[in-house]
UniProtKB/TrEMBL annotation:
Superkingdom as given in the UniProt entry: Eukaryota
Protein name in UniProt: EF-hand domain-containing protein
Native source species: Henosepilachna vigintioctopunctata
Keyword list, A-Z: Calcium, Repeat
Organism lineage string: Eukaryota, Metazoa, Ecdysozoa, Arthropoda, Hexapoda
Keyword Calcium listed: yes
Cited SUPFAM superfamilies: EF-hand (SSF47473)
Molecular function terms from GO: calcium ion binding
GO cellular component, one term: myosin II complex
Length: 168
């Protein structure tokens, strides 16, 4: 089985509900190892065949390309055992999905940052919402701005935007 590369990424980075969804997707494709359950576990351990990695990720709403999938497998299974454990699956999700999501957020941020100065202002929000066919009263746009402007400087930085868009 693949070497455990999870020391830098902890399961606690996911919320309880999200972790449960991840475990359900993992278990759809994982097979029993044949080993007995540890004292702190109810069921025997399972392992995921690397050939099912993309399918398990797709069940969670992520769409890794074939190249991304092979790169992830090479990263955690250099000996080509063909299997990864749950902690390694968590590691891959946190490390790779976070990157994919950040790329998507940067693209979305760039749409709103019309003048390209690295921040989003109220006029830019008004411009984009108008061009998307959305009509918000000025007070709602100001409320959006206040809610998304984490540092209260009157502008939405990428960090403010990313936090606002990914909070639960």
């Amino acid at each position: 089985m693949a070497e455990d590369k999870t020391s830098e990424v902890e399961e606690e980075e996911f919320g309880q509900e999200e972790l449960q969804e991840i475990e359900e997707a993992y278990n759809i494709y994982a097979i029993p190892t044949g080993m007995p359950a540890d004292d702190d576990e109810e069921e025997p351990p399972r392992i995921l065949g690397t050939h099912n990695l993309a399918a398990a990720m797709k069940d969670l709403g992520y769409e890794p390309t074939e190249a991304e999938t092979f790169a992830m497998i090479d990263q955690v299974d250099p000996d080509k055992t063909g299997f990864i454990d749950f902690k390694t699956f968590i590691y891959l999700l946190r490390k790779n999905v976070k990157t994919m999501n950040e790329d998507d957020l940067r693209i979305a941020f760039a749409v709103f940052d019309k003048d390209g100065n690295g921040t989003i202002s109220i006029p830019e929000i008004k411009y984009i919402t108008l061009h998307l066919g959305l009509q918000y009263p000025p007070d709602e746009i100001e409320d959006m701005m206040r809610e998304a402007d984490g540092d209260g400087d009157g502008k939405i930085s990428f960090e403010d935007f990313a936090y606002f868009m990914t909070r639960k």
